[in-house]
Design goal:
- The protein has 98 residues and is mostly helical.
- Helix content is 57%, strand content 0%.
Length: 98
């Protein structure tokens, strides 16, 4: 997942790997706490879900660095992806009654 998101953020070096991994983890945690199922962050058929990658890419772009002028735009994009996933049955965390 990290390598996919790095490419989408145009990061070609490993210098920022720790920061990227930390941001991905924080984004996943936020999504889960918002009601997205933890299962959607796992590979299925050896691939990650595109909407999950889009969501986490926006989170990384919003939070990476400290002098970005587009942080708010990417955070709104992330929140939109996250909120959409909390409403869709394919992504929504179950209540355990299934």
């Amino acid at each position: 997942m990290k390598d996919i998101i790095k490419k989408r953020c145009y990061i070609m070096t490993n210098v920022f790997d720790d920061e990227i991994e930390s941001l991905i983890s924080a984004g996943i945690t936020d999504c889960i706490q918002s009601g997205v199922s933890p299962d959607v962050f796992k590979k299925k058929n050896n691939e990650y879900d595109d909407q999950v990658i889009n969501c986490l890419t926006a989170f990384v772009k919003a939070n990476r660095g400290n002098d970005r002028s587009d942080t708010e735009i990417y955070m709104k994009m992330y929140e939109s992806y996250r909120d959409k996933m909390t409403l869709e049955s394919d992504y929504k965390a179950g209540d355990g009654s299934e």
